[in-house]
Design brief:
The chain contains six helices and six strands, in the order βαβαβααβαββα. It is an alpha/beta fold. Strands 3-2-4-1-5-6 form a six-stranded mixed beta sheet, with helices on both faces. Strand 5 and strand 6 form a beta hairpin.
Length: about 230
């Protein structure tokens, strides 16, 4: 079985310079172009293959998945939306600038202390982990080994889901970089052991001129190589 884990494309929330989690924004024009770019990347790989498709219940994830399926010629594929894949509810942090967050909640670190995070008035890391475990048990555990599954979700949730699928300790997530918009993480499940191995991790090479400005500065924070740590 192959899993194609994809972060949603750029939404109007990504352009505001604010912390956004559960607010429901749609894609920008650039975001639509990003979604079509990753769809084109996957088209040859998925040609003639049956695909299953899952996404968060937030609009930016569903829109991204719809654009991808159009490009891969799987537009008739049924999309399963699930709240298990929605972004972590960041509670009182929602709508704050990153500088406001640093001033009001200096103890909160969404990068290197994600495994310890409990958002004020929102969810904890453990809450998101439970949702991801529910998704794995409900939709992936008994899936045929020849399946190709596209999953579109969000920055924090995809970090949690990836770490779980790879059976890594909770603290390892603190070395997993933020995923760029429409970045692709491809995992393959081994038939005998049912464990996953990384084929591609946070691959955004398809974006080229559509990359997020400054992503290399804020997104690639990890001081250790996740795959080697």
């Amino acid at each position: 079985m192959k899993l194609y884990l994809i972060r949603h494309a750029e939404s109007h929330g990504n352009t505001k310079g604010k912390i956004i989690s559960t607010t429901n924004f749609e894609l920008t024009e650039k975001g639509i172009a990003q979604a079509r770019r990753i769809g084109a990347k996957l088209c040859a790989e998925l040609k003639g293959k049956k695909v299953s498709a899952y996404c968060s219940s937030l609009a930016r994830a569903r829109q991204t998945l719809q654009e991808i399926l159009q490009c891969t010629r799987h537009e008739d594929t049924v999309i399963t939306e699930t709240s298990c894949l929605k972004e972590m509810d960041l509670g009182l942090l929602e709508g704050m600038s990153w500088e406001e967050r640093r001033q009001k909640y200096p103890e909160i670190d969404l990068d290197e202390k994600l495994s310890l995070l409990r958002a004020p008035g929102g969810e904890s890391y453990e809450d998101v982990k439970k949702r991801c475990l529910t998704f794995i048990e409900s939709h992936l555990k008994d899936t045929d080994n020849d399946s190709n599954i596209i999953i579109v979700s969000h920055g924090i949730t995809l970090r949690v889901l990836t770490n779980l699928l790879l059976n890594r300790p909770d603290e390892d997530i603190n070395h997993l970089n933020w995923m760029e918009n429409t970045a692709l993480t491809e995992l393959a499940r081994q038939k005998q052991s049912h464990t996953y191995q990384v084929i591609r991790l946070n691959d955004y090479s398809h974006l080229e001129e559509l990359k997020t400005a400054g992503y290399e500065n804020w997104g690639l924070f990890a001081k250790r190589d996740y795959q080697k740590s």
